[in-house]
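Hi support team,

I'm opening this ticket because the web form for multi-chain structure prediction keeps timing out on my end. I have pasted the exact lines I submitted so you can reproduce it. The total is 537 residues across two entries, so I didn't expect it to be a heavy job. Is there a limit I'm missing, or should I split the entries? Thanks in advance, R.K.
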Amino acid sequence: MGSIFSLQQILNGLQLGSIYALIALGYTLVYGIVRLINFAHGDFFMIGAYAAYGSFYMFNALVAGRSGTLAFLVLLAAMIGGASIAYLTNKFAYKPLRYKPKLSSLITAIGVSMFIEYFFSALPAIGPSYRSFPDILVRKEIRLGNAVISNLVIIDLAVAAILMVGLTLLVRKTTLGKAMRAVSQDKDAARLMGIDIEKVISFTFMVGGAFAGAAGLLAGMTYPRIFPYMGILPGLKAFIAAVLGGIGNIPGAMLGAYIMGIAETFASAYNSLIGEGIAFAILILVLLIRPRGLLAEKIADKI
Amino acid sequence: MLKVTNLKVNYGKIEAIKDVSFEVPDGKIVTLIGANGAGKTTTLRAISGLERAAGGSIVFEGKDITNLEAHKIVPLGISHVPEGRKIFPTLTVKENLELAGWTIKDKTEVNRRIDQVCEIFPRIKERLSQLGGTLSGGEQQMLAVGRALVTGGKLLLLDEPSMGLAPVLVDEIFDRIAAINKQGTTVLLVEQNAMEALEIADFAYILEVGYTTISGEAKAIEHDQRVREAYLGV
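Hello R.K., no limit was hit. The queue was backed up. Here is the completed structure from your submission:
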């Protein structure tokens, strides 16, 4: 094994960062539009992983052999799973509290998170125990100097990159994206334009959920073990990544997530316990030194 | 065209509007005049669906729109230039105008209206690619009115269009409002600048702490001794 800062570690860090980025974007999108820290967001990630798991076995029975098509269908299922739970959470938990004090929503978010976790543990089809995640694609590896690059690294980075570019185009270029930015900036003005802000908010939740769902699949493939509480820690770390980048800021969430992924990987290579703790050390440092996050001042747009 | 009857609006336990009634006839300019806190802004917000009415009714072109959601009121033909302009600061001027056409399916029509706004306000045309937040106060006011023109209501609600503007600009904005009215848009104007408002209005209503008290033709109101003392400072 090489040094802590080897190419291998950088790749591992980028891979972890990609997963954090997809989760962090959901936190930041939702915060941008309703100023709510959605603590149930990590659980959307978990739902995505289970949707991928279930759909893999379902599609595998229909389509023989492991193929790119199968993997794509599973990705779609994971994203739909994440989007659906996000839609339902917003509709039944957050929307009724929209014009109530913020604290109500925050406490509700914690409640929703625990509800999803315990409910899924209690479901006989899922259960509280670990499951090993199947190999959706045949693993391949190439050697590059001392580093071993698996096809999973490339897939994780590519899926995250494609989704992030897609999101940026959606928000910057489309009418719906402009409506999202308008709602995040001034809800009354958006309503006076004739925008149904609840629809835009619901759509934003679903995009965030879909991204968390995709992250669930990637995490399942990369660290092949899933369980109903798997969303707690990645959710928390992705939230810290979003805060690090400047909560509400899209490029900030991406930047924060990659910094977190790389920092955690380097620290783990030194000592695995420090690796688990580094995220929280970063959080404390950010809150002390730059509480609004890295990109908060450069880019004022809050979505 | 618009008939507000015994309107009541509460903010929590505070009664912001206790009993407001007035009418806006088709094609006219009607102004609501009153001191700060009289309930002018709240009245407009209730009409466009931003506030819920606790009582009374709002009827627009024969249709009861009391407590209809804002996004359903806009397509009926009411556009509202809100207090403080509420420009989207990190959207460009063009994007601000495009969003104002949200309820219009035909996007070539939206572009046609944006061109029209550029004709009425040449300053806006020069600023199309700039961010809304970088405009001066006067330009933001023009953009706010421009947005309402793109939305294209039959009834235009204007909340303090002269606020914070240099006197030259105030005259300009009022000229434009009169011109927009001449082209067939009915206007409901809320103003602290009572003198200017009465100049262009056909009818006026005085609002006092949540009640409509005095009403009549603008010319008559202008010469009403009580109004002159309280609101015109003469």
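A quick check on our side: The radius of gyration of chain A is 19 Å. Let us know if the file doesn't open in your viewer.
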